[in-house]
């Protein structure tokens, strides 16, 4: 059967207005939508869909329920059939369990542990003093269910006493297991419980109170806890997001809590990741203006840039707010700068403008080469926007570049610089894909560096070098923006590298054979070596890259 948690996650992804809207023509009516009831014959609409409550209700015939119920009734489907249909519409992968569904047990355990963390907070002076210093009120402690995790031993004792099996506690991410021993993952930390959008406990975040090098850690990914989809505080902000049509994304849990405390109760935070495609369904709900409010340090500005590209590509209203001079929203609330925060939130820099400004400031626009890079990056970025936004930002971008809008609009994508057939040339597409893959999965960098060298890159050499050396480069940004570039899985990446190396050594073998000036001994050595490499490559293995320019 379909796993309950999976159904819960599907429900978080779908929007009833979309689902019903596929079958019934809906018109906006206050905060709800109205249409002619598909379940009875009527001339004036009495069928209401509530995006906030995620259900429909007909005041004529009494039909009502959630999106799944609607599909069951309308399409005459069973419960699992309706779920599967929705999942396929939303491109969502369901997981299945054998026999009895779990999920409820896990939630009960998470609740019990959350209660225990909360109780611990009352007796822990360090944690309470910390909260007081940061200005967190008792009401906020209560509202967000803050707690305290003591030592590993105390946690294990608590679980034993309450007869929670260690393996269950491990499944939900509370315990870890190493060298035959269980240990608590969160030790001597202030606890921020994390909930699903519907308010179910799914995991915990913890801030160190003993200067542990990892300032914040979260529960690991479990079947309940999908970090890349959740937003901290969303269940508390949801109703106000629908009402105020504004959603504020900040970087930290403490920022969320303090903003709520100051009345900015539509604030949420990502869970230690940047904003990604996976967050979009949740951000779209209620169609709010989205304000990305990050710190002014390098990490904050880079994250804001990524978010601005993502949100402008998906036509979100809103913009970016950067907190300058080392300030963050939590401290600004604590020091009473609430009006200043409101001023910032009421005039964010629109996403597209933020991106264009950032591209311009990341390159040396004064040199002809720098200007060309900026020109190309901006052009590609504009291409990724809706036609409306393109028109809107063309004049702005062209005035920054000091060229006419017509030129920025008309020039086609740059052809690759050179077309000569070098054996050191990966195809342009493969180069971009390799770079994009490494941007998305930096852990694969070692794999690539073992078998490649930047000299193998032809068209995108500077982007590859910037990537491995960790500096900014407009071509790299361009690749980062371009959603049409394929991201390889590890397997695909290996295949691509293998394919390239094979071509490389086959050509090299040819060259060696024809190379007269090489002493025979050396010639045999290389012939053998390259033949061996080719054999290994044919078996699907990877071999190191060796430049034969040293011959
Ligand atoms: Zn009806």
Mean pLDDT: 86
- The CATH homologous superfamily of the largest domain is termed DNA primase, catalytic core, N-terminal domain
What would you report as the Rg, rounded to the nearest angstrom?
28 Å
CATH topology of the largest domain: DNA primase DNAg catalytic core, N-terminal domain
Question: How many domains is the backbone divided into?
Answer: 5
Shape: globular
The low-confidence parts are: 411-425
State which percent range the strand residues make up: 5-15%
Bound molecules: zinc ion
Structural class: alpha+beta
Biggest sheet descriptor: 5 strands, antiparallel
Q: Residue share in helices?
A: 40-55%
Q: What is the second-level CATH architecture of the largest domain?
A: Alpha-Beta Complex
- Give the neighbour order of strands across the main sheet: 1-2-3-4-5
Number of helices: 25
Distance between the termini: 63 Å
The total of beta strands comes to 16
The CATH class name of the largest domain reads Alpha Beta
Protein model, in words:
- It is a single chain.
- The chain folds into 5 domains: 4-99, DNA Primase, Chain A, CATH 3.90.580; 104-225, DNA primase DNAg catalytic core, N-terminal domain (Alpha-Beta Complex); 231-340, Dna Topoisomerase Vi A Subunit, Chain: A, domain 2, CATH 3.40.1360.10; 363-409; 422-538, DNAb Helicase, Chain A (Orthogonal Bundle).
- It is globular.
- Mean pLDDT is 86; it is low at 411-425.
- α13 links the parallel β14 (289-295) and β15.
- With 551 residues, it is of the alpha+beta class.
- A 5-stranded antiparallel β-sheet has the order 1-2-3-4-5.
- 50% of the residues lie in helices and 13% in strands.
- The longest helix is centred in the last third of the chain and has 25 residues, at 490-514.
- The structure holds zinc ion.
């Amino acid at each position: 059967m379909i796993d309950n948690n999976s159904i819960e996650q599907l429900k978080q992804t779908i929007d009833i207005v979309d689902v019903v809207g596929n079958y019934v023509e809906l018109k906006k009516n206050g905060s709800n939508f109205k249409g002619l009831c598909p379940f009875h014959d009527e001339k004036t609409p009495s069928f209401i869909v509530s995006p906030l409550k995620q259900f429909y209700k007909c005041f004529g015939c009494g039909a009502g329920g959630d999106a799944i119920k609607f599909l069951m009734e309308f399409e005459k489907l069973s419960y699992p059939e309706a779920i599967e249909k929705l999942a396929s519409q939303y491109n969502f992968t369901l997981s299945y369990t054998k026999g009895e569904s779990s999920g409820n047990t896990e939630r009960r355990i998470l609740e019990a542990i959350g209660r225990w963390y909360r109780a611990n907070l009352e007796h822990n002076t360090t944690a309470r003093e910390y909260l007081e210093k940061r200005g967190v009120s008792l009401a906020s402690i209560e509202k967000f269910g803050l707690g305290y995790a003591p030592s590993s031993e105390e946690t294990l004792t608590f679980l034993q006493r309450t007869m929670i099996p260690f393996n269950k506690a491990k499944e939900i991410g509370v315990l870890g297991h190493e060298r035959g021993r269980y240990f608590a993952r969160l030790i001597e930390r202030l606890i921020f419980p994390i909930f699903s959008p519907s308010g179910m406990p799914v995991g915990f975040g913890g801030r160190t109170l003993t200067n542990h090098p990892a300032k914040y850690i979260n529960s690991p990914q479990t079947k309940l806890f999908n970090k890349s989809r959740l937003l901290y505080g969303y269940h508390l902000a949801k109703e106000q997001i629908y009402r105020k049509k504004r959603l504020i994304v900040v970087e930290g849990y403490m920022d969320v809590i303090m903003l709520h405390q100051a009345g900015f109760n539509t604030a949420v935070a990502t869970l230690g990741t940047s904003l990604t495609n996976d967050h979009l369904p949740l951000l779209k709900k209620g169609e709010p203006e989205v304000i990305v409010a990050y710190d002014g340090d390098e990490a904050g500005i880079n994250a804001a840039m990524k978010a601005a590209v993502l949100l402008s590509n998906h036509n979100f209203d809103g913009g970016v707010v950067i907190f300058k001079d080392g300030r963050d929203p939590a401290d600004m609330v604590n020091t009473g700068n609430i009006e200043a925060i409101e001023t910032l939130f009421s005039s964010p820099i629109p996403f597209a403008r933020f991106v264009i400004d950032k591209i311009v400031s990341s390159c040396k626009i004064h040199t002809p080469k720098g200007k060309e890079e900026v020109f190309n990056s901006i052009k590609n970025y504009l291409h990724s926007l809706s036609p409306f936004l393109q028109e809107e930002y063309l004049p702005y971008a062209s005035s920054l570049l000091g060229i006419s809008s017509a030129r920025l609009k008309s020039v086609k994508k740059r052809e690759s610089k050179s077309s000569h057939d070098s054996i050191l040339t990966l195809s342009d597409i493969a180069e971009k894909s390799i770079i994009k893959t490494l941007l998305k999965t930096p852990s694969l960098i070692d794999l690539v560096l073992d078998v490649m060298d930047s000299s193998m890159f032809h068209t995108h050499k500077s982007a590859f070098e910037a990537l491995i050396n960790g500096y900014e480069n407009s071509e790299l940004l361009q690749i980062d923006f371009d959603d049409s570039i394929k991201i390889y899985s590890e397997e695909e990446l290996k295949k691509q590298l293998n394919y390239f190396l094979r071509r490389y050594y086959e050509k090299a073998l040819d060259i060696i054979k024809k190379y007269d000036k090489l002493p025979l001994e050396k010639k045999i050595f290389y012939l053998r070596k390259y033949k061996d490499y080719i054999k290994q490559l044919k078996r699907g293995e990877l071999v190191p890259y060796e430049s034969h320019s040293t011959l």
